[in-house]
């Protein structure tokens, strides 16, 4: 029995290795199906036999020399999570018969074994997913709980067990697969209820059956990556355009900054030149200032008003307490002595009043007038039509 199982398994694995089709999805990602999708139920019937494993292989004792094969039955419900990985719960059992060396008789007993198995579709894994492939090899491995009872025995013997096997699936149509399932079930201690003293036993079964795929959704859809790649490409293009716009804006900002700096420097240079020009011509508190008038007049001209503004700012900035004397004059070549004296007084008062209007403290100003008795400037007469401010 073991040799038959091995030969069938080797043939099916060879068939799987050479079963690659051209139109397959080898390493594609698949969309996640709903929980109610990809369910299936299966039933199978066939033959089964039980061997008790020797504690020492050197004994050479065959504990089932007649290779008793009895009828076996199984039923399962399972679900595929991906085209490669799935799981199922299977029931197998009914009755079993094996030979007992000590009694020299057959040992008849009943058993029920329920186990959960992981399923790996080797064909889809190795060759790529193809929904209408004729043959698929599915590896099974799992564990469960078994109940056994010998004829005439009271109560059930309960044992844990492990399962491994190969399910060969042949596509009949969209809804049904035929399957040939080969399994080995490792049981613990006295599962056959024979009290043989051996620690383990092996229950082998080969069954043929049908698998029905529940018609909610039977297949898997490859993930359409184009919508994501297109979105990624569009985003990358947007980023590229954004970077280009940022670079252009940065260049424009740099140009504007340079222009602004040039304009700022030009204005600063102009203001500095203006400041220097004003400083060159503006009177200070350490210098005397002469305000010239027209013949017979005491009106301050526009030009002299600007000079007095500079002087007023200088006086206000001066933190000292020195007085500034405003002395009026008239030229002696024109007018009478009394007229010139009055005119020189009016000229001094005009300067005095204008400085007061500009915010100069009156306590820092003093008026004096000389008429034509003194001529501050030698030369032409018009040079003495003046008011002189001195500290």
How is this structure best summarized?
By secondary structure, this protein is an alpha+beta fold.
Number of helices: 5
Ends apart, CA distance between termini: 136 Å
- Molecular shape: rod-shaped
The level of helicity is: 25-40%
In spatial order, strands of the major sheet run 1-2-3-4-5-6-7-8
Compressed to H and E, one letter per element, the order equals HEEEEHEEEEHEHEHEE
Q: Radius of gyration from the CA trace?
A: 60 Å
The oligomeric state of the chains shown is single chain
Q: Got a strand count?
A: 12
SS-based class: alpha+beta
What attributes does this structure have?
rod-shaped; 8-stranded antiparallel β-barrel; 391 residues; 4-stranded mixed β-sheet; alpha+beta
What can you tell me about this protein's structure?
This protein has helices spanning 2-17, 122-127, 226-281, 302-317, 337-357, and strands spanning 39-52, 70-80, 85-100, 105-121, 135-150, 157-171, 176-188, 200-213, 289-292, 324-328, 365-369, 386-390. With 391 residues, the chain is an alpha+beta fold. It has an 8-stranded antiparallel barrel. It has a 4-stranded mixed sheet with strand order 9-12-10-11. Strand 6 (157-171) and strand 7 form a beta hairpin. The longest helix has 56 residues, at 226-281. It is rod-shaped, with a radius of gyration of 60 Å. Mean pLDDT is 83; it is low at 1-9, 11-23 and 55-63.
């Amino acid at each position: 029995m073991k040799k038959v199982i091995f030969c069938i398994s080797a043939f099916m694995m060879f068939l799987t290795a050479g079963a690659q089709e051209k139109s397959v999805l080898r390493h594609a990602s698949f969309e996640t199906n709903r929980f109610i999708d990809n369910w299936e139920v299966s039933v199978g019937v066939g033959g089964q036999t039980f061997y008790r494993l020797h504690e020492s292989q050197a004994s050479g004792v065959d504990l089932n020399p007649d290779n008793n094969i009895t009828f076996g039955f199984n039923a399962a419900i399972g679900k595929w999570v991906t085209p490669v990985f799935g799981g199922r719960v299977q029931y197998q059992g009914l009755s079993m018969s094996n030979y007992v060396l000590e009694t020299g008789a057959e040992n008849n007993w009943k058993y029920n074994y329920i186990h959960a198995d992981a399923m790996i579709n080797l064909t889809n894994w190795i060759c790529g997913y193809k929904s209408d492939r004729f043959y698929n090899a599915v590896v099974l491995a799992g564990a469960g709980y078994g109940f056994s009872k010998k004829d005439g025995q009271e109560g059930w013997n309960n044992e844990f067990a492990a399962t491994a096997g190969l399910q060969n699936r042949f596509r009949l149509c969209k809804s049904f697969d035929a399957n040939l399932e080969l399994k080995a079930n490792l049981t613990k201690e006295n599962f056959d209820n024979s009290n043989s003293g051996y620690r383990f036993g092996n229950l082998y079964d080969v069954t043929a059956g049908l698998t029905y795929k529940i018609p909610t959704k039977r297949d898997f859809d490859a993930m359409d990556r184009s919508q994501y790649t297109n979105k990624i490409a569009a985003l990358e293009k947007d980023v590229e355009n954004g970077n280009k716009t940022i670079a252009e804006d940065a260049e424009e900002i740099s140009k504007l900054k340079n222009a602004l700096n040039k304009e700022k420097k030009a204005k600063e240079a102009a203001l500095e030149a203006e400041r220097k020009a004003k400083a060159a011509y503006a009177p200070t508190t350490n210098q005397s200032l002469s305000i010239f008038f027209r013949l017979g007049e005491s009106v301050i001209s526009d030009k002299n008003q600007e000079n007095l503004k500079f002087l007023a700012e200088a006086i206000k900035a001066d933190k000292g307490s020195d007085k500034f004397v405003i002395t009026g004059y008239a030229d002696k070549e024109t007018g009478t002595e009394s007229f010139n004296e009055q005119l020189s007084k009016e000229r001094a008062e005009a300067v005095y009043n204008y400085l007061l209007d500009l915010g100069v403290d009156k306590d820092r100003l003093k008026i004096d007038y000389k008429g034509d008795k003194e001529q501050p400037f030698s030369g032409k007469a018009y040079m003495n039509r003046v008011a002189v401010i001195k500290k």
